[in-house]
Fold these 4 entries.
Entry 1:
Amino acid sequence: MQMKRRYLAIACCLALPLLYGCATTNYGDNQFKLSMASSGKDVMWVPTKVEMADQMLSLAQVRKGDLVYDLGSGDGIIPIEAAKKYQVRAVGIEYNPDLVKLSQRNAERAKVESLVTFKQGDIFVEDFSKATVLTLYLGENLNTRLMPTILKMQAGTRVVSNTFRMDGWIADQEVRISNGEMAYLWIVPANIDGSWQWNGPSELSNLRLVLRQKKQFVDGTLYQGNKRIAHFEDGRIRGSDLEFAFTYQNTNYVFKGKINGSSMTGNLNNNPALAVSARR
Ligand SMILES: C[S@@+](CC[C@H](N)C(=O)[O-])C[C@H]1O[C@@H](n2cnc3c(N)ncnc32)[C@H](O)[C@@H]1O
């Protein structure tokens, strides 16, 4: 038995990318035993602490109507906390069938089984595009592998990761919880890259706005015919909300607006009389 456990620990260390070194603790309940056969696929199970789960959900500003997905849901702590605290629907996708069963038992113990669902499956195969909040505790490599799929999700989807960042996508917000652990938030930006026909007030009407987007950061140029009349470097898109500042004929403008597919509406300098609309 001792040998078997030692073999398991060593095998885990060699075969799996680990979080926090070698975790040999057997969490769970009396029906659950962590074994080599039931270890995670791309990363082994290490549970998020309740304090962190609560911080992650609060960072994502979970609210009525949200649908929370936890990718690699372990014992179900995050979906269960989401259902308990916010009465929202939550789904866990977990590769390990023993953990799926454990999380179902945990949901029943927490009396939230009507709100949460646990699905056995591979996070790189299963569809989670309907999530409005996505939670991750997977490691930077796996977060980064998921990034192209996440970026195609509905604009405004909040993505929260316990401890790990994503390579090539700066977090919109980060918090350190009391024990020093970090949580990161990203908000899926609308896709706004490209050329827009822009109509603003008086001399700012009938222009072309060319936007160049890098995740939530945007730079852009306004053209009148072929003439470049303004340029900005530090625009931001947060979900569907776009904001940028530019100067035209010695006047400073701040555009704030919303993106809805291929249309943009908003105004300049918070003035409804300076309305802007644009189409891509
Ligand atoms: C570090 S644990 C996090 C568990 C849970 N999300 C939490 O925060 O407590 C990672 C989980 O991902 C699961 N996992 C690893 N690769 C997976 C994959 N490709 N598809 C689904 N689950 C996976 C593991 O079994 C493990 O339960």
Entry 2:
Amino acid sequence: MVIYNTLTRREEPFTPRQAGKVAMYACGLTPQAPAHVGHMRGVVVMDIVQRWLEQLGYQVDFVQNFTDIDDKIIRRAHEEGIPTTEVARKYSQMYIEDAEALGVRLPRFVKVTENMDAIIEMVQRLVDDGYAYVVDGDVYFEVNKFPEYGKLSGRSVEEMQAGARIEVDERKRNPEDFALWKAAKPGEPAWDSPWGKGRPGWHIECSALSLKYLGAAFDIHAGGMDLIFPHHENEIAQSETYLHCEQPFARYWLHWGPVRLRQEKMSKSTGLVVPIRELRQQYEPAVIRYFLLTVHYRTPLEFSYERLDEAKSALERVRTAYQRATAFLRERGGAQPDPTVAEPYRQQFCDAMNHDFNTAQAIAAAFEVVREINTRLNAPEQAAQPETLAELAGLLNALQWMMETVLGISLHAPDTARSETLEQLMRCVIAWRQELRSRKLYDLADRIRDDLKAVGIILEDTPQGTLWRMG
Ligand SMILES: [Zn+2]
Ligand SMILES: [Zn+2]
């Protein structure tokens, strides 16, 4: 398999740090607003990466952070009149629900506020080793001390200064030095540190968390392309100096492209945002997931409702062929699958996935299988022959593996029992129950749980909040 590595700017054969195991990290969300389609692209891309690596026989440890304290969260807490912890809890919970709805298996989530020790330890060592300096309770990384600075983004320090959106701060030794630790402003959440009360800068958290949970020279570090500079550049600088430049921080740097709306990047800053929650009211999650996979992950994805409608009818074609062939086989007593006809398409699919996770080409291979199925179903008399039935069974197996196992897209139309209305209703019920519990009305809260259980809905209280499922 080859992966495009942003660090070397080319496709490279993938060899993990440790045989049979892959350690990967993706920069996660700052939970302070509902996730939009751009966020979900990254989530789905990483789910595909994990699924494919597992198909290749690797055991994957996938870690992702929640930036559960930062300026935006503090601002949002003021706006909503709730504590920062509540802002982070609420929007992480929404994000997890959105991800699960899109068929994503959750990574190992780690939170900044639960790992302050590791962050402070890392900053301290950078200060001790002379890579960072302290000014009035702030700690800055001194970029000049890392000669390889710029190797990921390919920018020189001069270029960065020329393009300077970097604010001038007289206390910094160089304009491009960045904060590892920020002294607390009055009224802000703060943690004790050797430099006084404060909180970590954004870049240091990803370095500290990924190194803590995955160790040095872990395999894949991923994120959106907009994070290459300065975020990932800074992560490399502080991590590799922390490791005394004896080991790389991460080995393969994978970056997914943006989702665009009317030619502009979908982000809170452009104001062009389609929350995934809203989209889920209009489209089945499997359709959204299919749409997100129709282009290679590095290519910008143009968002439009026409494209979503196209995705919807494309998925319907796949499902119809699958359902018809399944019924056709069942009516004729089934058959021992013959994989011969499907084999070249399976190979085509594998080649596509092995070539930097090219889901667009992989989907094309799945459509070849659909075409073969339809050709047979359109000549029913011939299709009823035992050898053709066996081919059909083989094609169905291949299609199921491609669509469901690898791409994570169900070949069955959604279970109407779990409709969007029910989803919304359950969100209300869970919120009411939470409210009852916070008012210590535990008997009522328990009654809700028991009554739901009686109608076949199971509530599960987890550290991330309450989840529900049909029992
Ligand atoms: Zn990060
Ligand atoms: Zn290529």
Entry 3:
Amino acid sequence: MKAESILEQAHREGSGLENLLKLRKSLRVCDMGILMGAPVMDDVLPRMAVKLQQMVTERDKTGVRKEHPTNSRTTTVKKQRTTSQIRPVLSSTKLIQRVFCPSIAVFQSEFMERAEPVILTGVIDRWPAMTSRKWSLEYLASVAGDRTVPIEIGSKYTEDDWTQKLMTLRDFISSFVQPSEVDEAKDRRVGYLAQHQLFNQIPELQNDIMIPDYCCVKTSPPPKKMTSDYNTADTDDDEEIDINAWFGPAGTISPLHHDPKHNCLAQVVGEKFVRLYSEEETDKLYPHEGFLLNNTSRVDVENPDLEQFPGFSSAKYQEGILRAGDLLYIPPRCWHYVRSLTSSFSVSFWWQ
Ligand SMILES: O=C(O)CCC(=O)C(=O)O
């Protein structure tokens, strides 16, 4: 109701700056409803938000935004560039195997049933996000620049000063993904749009990707004991595929952790370094104690404190670089550590 009433006020303002500001305000209210509330009125908010974003983009094209001084920094999104980051040196004996587009039957018997990670190639390369509607920063800003999204701020979620903020996607891009030289010189903190169900919020972007067929394959359920450590909220609905977006600059880190579901992690833009440890190595990975972080290791994978965590040095692992077009299968309860080497957009599909 609030979004609707602000939209009516926008219509009364004609087509100038006030109108644009009201449209943006109405859009923000929609997003707050989507992010904070349950779906209402036949899930009207995502549809209304798409329309509002189109209206705002239309106004921007007609030049109204130039009248808005606080937005002058964000009117144009600069060309995407790759930040150089320390590239890990990978051992050729530990590389995650790469397989070109296996059949469903092979995927099920060789990888799912054996809990064997694999990088699948030739699976997602024809997604519109990688071809006709390539997910450049310009494209993302034009489709969803005014949408409010949650951003994790801080190098990793295990750090004390880690926090979350709501901001528009355009502000996230200009401040964190592609900061100006002035911002960069300030040594800003890392921002990460991480594990967010962006595609429920912005259905337009969902049209640019496809659920890989592999994500519909089932295995026999694990023994009860193995799932009992997880929050039941994650495990009740075994039919659903959770699709999450992971979008950020070079240098985002997802600390070593594991999840209860099968996961296909699609690398749409940029590159990521991934290190994987099987469930059997858990004792050497020193998980946090307590309920909230017991799926997360206390070890800093790329800079381990071996006096505190001596067993870590003998933990067996596999690793690899995910490149745009790769699809990484991570079995349930397989430990994974992920660091982006360039600005990057990945999409994860979790299923039971
Ligand atoms: O890409 C990342 O930063 C982490 C992805 C991840 O942890 C997942 O898909 O479960």
Entry 4:
Amino acid sequence: MYDPIVEPYPQSWQQYPDSYWARSITTFPETTSLVNDIQADVAIIGAGYTGLSCAYHLAKQYGKSVVVLEANDPGWGCSGRNAGFVLPGTGRLSLTDMEVKWGEAKAYGVFQEYMESIDCVNDFIEKGQIDCDKTPGGYLKLAHKRAKVAGLREQAEKLNERYGESVSFVCSKDVSRSFLKSANMYGGIYFDKSFAVNPMKLVLGYYQMATEAGVKTFSNSPVINWQSKSNHQCLYTQNGRVTAEKVIIASNGYTGKKMHSLVNNCHFPVLSSIIVTRPLSSEELESIQIKAGLMAMDTRRMKYYYRLLPDNRILFGGRGAISGKKADNPKHKKRLTEGLKQTFPILNGIEIDYFWSGWVSATYDNYPRIHHNKDKTVYYSMGYCGSGLAFSSLAGKRLAQSMYEPELLPDLPFWQSPLRKFPFSRFRRVGLSAYYTLASLRD
Ligand SMILES: Cc1cc2nc3c(=O)[nH]c(=O)nc-3n(C[C@H](O)[C@H](O)[C@H](O)COP(=O)(O)OP(=O)(O)OC[C@H]3O[C@@H](n4cnc5c(N)ncnc54)[C@H](O)[C@@H]3O)c2cc1C
């Protein structure tokens, strides 16, 4: 599998992973690759939610000519292979962490932005009439140990004061009564605004909306070279070149090791993996009683996340391998099946029909950035950690605003500083390996 820490960019002509989502698409859009020299106001690298949302807003709202260059096909990165949780959050900071770091007002401002990111996905779905199997069901963050309950309860109570019923604390009895029956869960925080989608159908919907707005997307056209001139930027692909006033890096976890000095060594691509079971029998469903559309994640350091799919399979995800070379090693699939068994003992031994992985982008200080170089010709948005579906959709819009209407940006830390470089970046993987060992002991 492509490895962003080792390789400079993803090779072209790679298939989508054999995922449940890719199999759900009957006809993929016909795309072309770049084979000549063209010009645009803005060139965007990466056709996932970030790049396509930004492209759409630049074309639709600001009338810009926009070219998107994608190494493979739209949604080939994380956007076509995630779990489809539309969540109020990104990064790894809790509300309490944010209050300590930025004070109460900013922390709530960030949470407001998270809620808006869900509205942003909804707007896309409504405007583009995207048929992405949207299923309301809410998001439940579950304590996997009694010791985690108090923190979740405190967060829920604070958020409940501001957002009313849409955020609430649920005790362990209510979890089993209304949400799911699982081993070892001790209550949690419930966000009822969250919903589940088919992420591949969603990203292809964004692609279609961007195309209809006049955006030109070229697939199988990785950017392999980049020259910054005094008044323009040149991006080179194998067979063509785009000259643009401004460039946006929207390659997130798939950003290769030498993309641009603004982002090199400023993020850490980490693998997350998913298994999907065969459809559950009615006895199995009766035993686990998981609510349709519900998305659940636990409080482990190495989190498990899961949901029931529309055809009654369980999607179950968690950490993946350390390197791209080992991504498909069966031991990672086995680790997830163990996690599934711990969560729902009745599913011990169930057949697994799908297993795939993707690169999420972690940052040094656990939250993403939407930033630019000094002369505002190169912009980026990245570092959503494991949860960027909703946030990257809004980040695309914010990127467009930060270029052409920066006064509209809410006063939040995401766009007020650049990404921080990882110290000793060469040793990131050694650190990750040690972290995984320690975390599994502590979990
Ligand atoms: C297994 C898994 C499960 C997840 N589940 C969830 C979830 O349920 N909810 C949630 O909120 N988040 C989830 N995420 C995270 C979420 O999917 C991402 O945060 C989000 O999709 C990021 O979108 P993006 O557009 O920024 O990047 P991507 O969708 O990764 O797109 C980046 C694109 O850039 C392209 N690219 C890279 N380099 C070049 C180059 N040199 N030239 C041209 N193109 C290039 C890549 O080919 C890629 O298609 C999950 C991630 C994974 C891996």
